[in-house]
Amino acid sequence: MKATLLHTKGEDNNPRIKTLVIDGEDDDPIFSLLDHLISLALNDNAFEAESAKDVQNMFWVKMPPGKKSLTLKWKRRVLDRPVFREPLRGVGESGTSPTEPLRASTWIRYLKRLGEKAGFQHAFTQYGLRRGLLNVVNHKAPASVRDQIFDHKPGTVSWYLDEEVQFDTKACFLGLPSNNVVQKVARLASLTADASAPTELSSEQRAKLSQHPQVIRLSQKTKL
């Protein structure tokens, strides 16, 4: 899934996400920043559209004709609310503060605790995240794109690059082929595909499949 975040500035002159543009799907939701942002927004009831309260509508809604993305607008009351906020502290309190931004010290403490729970030998830090990604991206993307990803400006070429990074950093980090590569292979495969080949099972095949002992056993297992 791809997302475009359109920003506006709040009363404290800090950037705020104004609209969220959703495009496509993600095969690995646990690594999807967009999925986490949507989860936070649904928990805060932040979207203007009533249909956006149902998470299924967010991913299964059909795109309007001629468009490749869906724009979701925030309610006005949340425009100046930080996306990541401090946890509530105190006797009997639980949840997240409605207004206080997440502190760097809290973020660092959470990362350290996550590393300890995962059994890492060394402390888990934000620097480690950036270093890990940089070592994967290095030599796989042009130097200008690499500097753009990490907000380094050694030369003037960065001023001419698009604001959106034209490189699949997640696929690179996970060692997976990028969407562009997969789509190119699919287009080439379609040139030799048999258009007359059946795309559905015949009635006889369906009957045999439904009567197969393993299929029956798995079907019963899913109903438990």
TrEMBL record:
Residues 211-224 have a biased composition (Polar residues). Residues 200-224 are annotated as: Disordered. Pfam families: DUF3435 (PF11917). This is Tyr recombinase domain-containing protein. InterPro entries: DUF3435. It comes from Lepraria finkii. It comes from the Eukaryota. Transmembrane segments: none annotated.
